[in-house]
Structure formats: structure tokens, C-alpha cells
Specification:
The protein has 111 residues and is α/β, with parallel strands linked by helices. 41% of the residues lie in helices and 18% in strands. A five-stranded mixed beta sheet has the order 1-5-4-3-2, with helices on both faces.
């Protein structure tokens, strides 16, 4: 399943890195402590977080995550937006909280 498929099925809004929407998603990792994410998330996962900063985008790049989904309509700062666009790392947003998003993701991903 691609990140674009997830975007369509869950009505997510793309706010940066649109060129990477064809990235294949192999799973999901939810976390806001980026050092923990760095050591635990797997390549191909989508990161679900409220951290919309350059460090979150850097973590996505470092471990080859499929993209970043910001819950609760968390903002993406301008430096992070530029980095995401430059490296084609999709950043999407949703009004759902982590738990609500995880439930919705699980329903479509495990069909």
C-alpha cells in the first residue's frame, strides 16, 4: 500500500513532500520521542507523531521511513517543510489523535 492510498482512504492532507506519495508503506510506528523512534522504527514504516520539526523529518530520512503523519493537526515548521520537500519525504496531517489514527490505519492496512 502506498502513502497516497493511505492519504485517500483516511482523508489526510498533504502539507509537504508530495513527490514521495508513491512510497510503499510496510507498517506504522507511533512515537514522539525521536531518539526512541530512531532506534525502534523500521524502514518503510510511516511515523505518526505530533513532532513537526526538522528533527522529525531528519529521522524519517535517516531510517528511510515512508513518511510522517502529524496527528491532531500539529503544525509543521517552515524549516521542516523545506527539508521534507527537498528530500521528498511526505508529511501529512490529520485531526485524529494517535489512538484514533492507529485504529483507522489498522482497519485499512490489515484488510
Amino acid at each position: 500500500m502506498t502513502l497516497n492510498d493511505i492519504k485517500e482512504k483516511l482523508s489526510l492532507e498533504v502539507i509537504a513532500g508530495e513527490d514521495g506519495l508513491s512510497n510503499e508503506v510496510s507498517g506504522c510506528y507511533i512515537g514522539d520521542l525521536l531518539s526512541w523512534v530512531l532506534g525502534k522504527a523500521n524502514s518503510g514504516d510511516v511515523l505518526v507523531s505530533v513532532m513537526g520539526n526538522s528533527n522529525a523529518v531528519a529521522v524519517c530520512s535517516m531510517i528511510d521511513l515512508a513518511g510522517l503523519i502529524l496527528t491532531e493537526n500539529s503544525p509543521l515548521d517552515e524549516d521542516a517543510r523545506k527539508k521534507a520537500d527537498a528530500f521528498s519525504i511526505p508529511v501529512l496531517t490529520t485531526p485524529l489523535n494517535h489512538y484514533q489514527f492507529a485504529n483507522a490505519f489498522s482497519k485499512i492496512f490489515n484488510q
